[in-house]
Amino acid sequence: MKNRRICGVVENGQHGLVVDIECQLTKGLPNIIIVGYANKAVDEAKERIRNAFASSRLELPVKRITVNLAPADIPKESTGFDLAIATAILQATGQSTALPESCAIIGELGLEGSVRPVRGIIGKLLAGKHSGIKTFVIPSGNLAQASLVPGIQLIDITSLEQWYAIINNQAEPSITDTDALADNPVAPAPQPEDVLGIEDVIGQALGKRAIEISAAGGHNVLLGGPPGTGKSMLAKVLPTLLPEMNRHEMLEVTHLHSLASNDFNQLIVDRPFRAPHHSASNVAVVGGGNSVRPGEMSLAHRGVLLFDELPEFGRVTVEALRQPLESRTVTIARAKETAEYPANFIFIATANPCPCGHYGTTKPCRCLPNQILQYRRKLSGPILDRIDIYVDVHEIDNSHLLQETSPHATTSDMVRQKVNAARARQTERFGTTSKLNADMTNRDVKAHAQLEPASKEMLDHAAEKFGLSARAYMRSVKLARTIADLDDSAAIKPKHIAEALQYRPHQYHDA
């Protein structure tokens, strides 16, 4: 029988590379030698394979077995080569008669012969598909994630013994055509009973309106005000107003979480909400490490990233937001490799007016003027320019807190319907669900803004009076476009511009 090409896939940042796996038997002391720039995790595959063969009652030849992973100058760091190496040995020893043609084989072997799921399966499948491979052999534990990748066929297996039976025509493979699943909706995860809704927030009408606009157009928000007024609560309500993810978004989000999470075989169906503590390291938030992986910014892709108490975060970490808030990507450059991860999230942050939190309130402030100035200067002008909405969250009368919620109160479901309608208008405008008003380029603004003459005159006058930068000017137009979409208005009217301008982050600039 003619030898089939046996392929695996190696991670290379967010993407991957197809690897040819060759095996040759020679005379010499019985041993398995793996060459091709393999790290310890790959080299240890020989012990897993030896035990898996014994547990599956398969013959391992008493010869010198040399396995080459080509190209040999690319680092190999995945346990996903185990099954492919085992298949190469079976082929070299004549123990396979019906190996599928042009397929990539991915899977980690257990000592008892099981095939375990691997990290980053989606990236591996996309890399193989890009190289022309249409059929993949994968662990059954990765099937839910892998089914999101369109245009491929999947053979899922649970054990080496099952795979041996398939490649010798002793068993029929279970083949999944992912295109046949494209129209099948993926059910969202059940919501916990204690999830917050907008109806749970007492008062704060302006804050509620701000997160509604943010959800509709993907705009960044900064909530300011004294402690205990509901800033964090409003921020946690924002994810409940977002529409469900489509299959393409699930594919992107699941892939990123698979690269970084310990639950790397979990299917992500709900929009992520990430809220790192202010003591989190820069690498944890941005990404990187010895083996470059996504950070919190990329794990919030297609969802919400909350920085609670923004001025308490390290300056380096806050300034690292500049690139993703503008380009929607994070580029991590290291000596050995450079990786680019998507980071298209809604950024929402909270901040107190001063270190003690009571400046400008009815309670006495204990901070010195210099302390207040230094606290506010932690947020640079470029960062504030990238925030579309600033809202002051004020104290409310405590006597209202225990009142029953009115049956006529606005609920998250009601707001979500308005958000979905506004996003439908943006989909019609841009021809894609992946682009929102906050993502508009200057060319898009000129083409789709549709400002009435009175609206442009009002905006020009405000820009001159308040000294708006060019970025702040364009962001005000984008924000007004979203407000108009929520109002079901084709044109941006003066009232939409007026509302957009009231959300400019004035307090910290005034410092």
Q: In terms of topology, how is this protein built?
A:
Layout: E1 6-12, E2 15-26, E3 31-35, H1 40-43, H2 45-55, E4 64-70, H3 82-92, E5 103-105, E6 108-109, E7 115-116, H4 121-130, E8 135-139, H5 143-146, E9 153-157, H6 160-166, E10 175-177, H7 205-217, E11 221-224, H8 231-237, H9 247-260, E12 273-274, H10 282-286, E13 287-288, E14 293-294, H11 296-299, E15 304-307, H12 315-319, H13 322-327, E16 329-333, E17 338-342, E18 346-351, H14 369-376, H15 381-385, E19 389-392, H16 412-430, H17 442-448, H18 453-466, H19 470-486, H20 494-501, H21 506-510
Parallel strand pairs: 1-5, 3-4, 5-8, 8-9, 11-18, 11-19, 12-15, 15-18
Antiparallel strand pairs: 1-2, 2-4, 6-7, 9-10, 13-14, 16-17
Helix pairs in contact: 2-3, 7-16, 18-20, 19-20
Description of the structure:
- This protein is an alpha/beta fold and 511 residues long.
- It folds into 2 domains: 176 residues, Ribosomal Protein S5, domain 2 (2-Layer Sandwich), CATH 3.30.230.10; 222 residues, Rossmann fold (3-Layer(aba) Sandwich), CATH 3.40.50.
- Helices cover 36% and strands 17% of the residues.
- It has 21 helices and 19 strands.
- The protein has an 8-stranded mixed β-sheet with strand order 3-4-2-1-5-8-9-10. The protein has a 5-stranded parallel β-sheet with strand order 12-15-18-11-19. Strands 6-7 form a two-stranded antiparallel ribbon.
- Strand 16 and strand 17 form a beta hairpin.
- Helix 2 crosses helix 3, helix 7 packs parallel to helix 16 and helix 18 packs parallel to helix 20.
- The chain is elongated and about 85 Å long.
- The C terminus is likely disordered.
